[in-house]
Design brief:
alpha/beta; 5-stranded parallel sheet; 49% helix; 124 residues
Length: 124
């Protein structure tokens, strides 16, 4: 399964903790991430991750292109709903593409844990 990992700045610590907790499960899959998020997760976990550009520099659009091409199976995007994002149109487009392509999307740590637990139990 191909999984994308994305996190806004104020959610980077959360996605790192999530990746550490689910390192064994995530390690069984092909991982993609926006630039900074991928670098931080790799540094903390040693997981192999294909890194895109940073979100504001086009990484969200690169993930979106993969979604549109049917190349991703799950997106974990820990969003910060309380901080305005300069690339909000790209974020909205990414969320819309998940709906169009019927790709599961976790936008907070609780929904991500549910999806990763399902992967661990082979229910996903």
């Amino acid at each position: 399964m191909k999984i994308a990992l994305i996190a806004h700045d104020k959610k980077k610590d959360e996605i790192i903790e999530l990746a550490k907790k689910y390192k064994n499960i995530l390690g069984e899959h092909e991982l993609y991430a926006t630039g900074t998020t991928g670098t931080l997760i790799m540094g903390e976990t040693g997981l192999a991750i294909h890194r895109m550009k940073s979100g504001p520099l086009g990484g969200d659009q690169q993930i979106g292109a993969m979604l549109a091409g049917g190349e991703l199976n799950l997106i974990i995007f820990l969003r910060d709903p309380l901080t305005a994002q300069p690339h909000e149109p790209d974020v909205s487009a990414l969320l819309r593409l998940c709906d169009v392509q019927k790709i599961p999307l976790a936008t907070n740590a609780s929904s991500a844990r549910i999806m990763l637990d399902a992967l661990a139990e082979k229910r996903f």
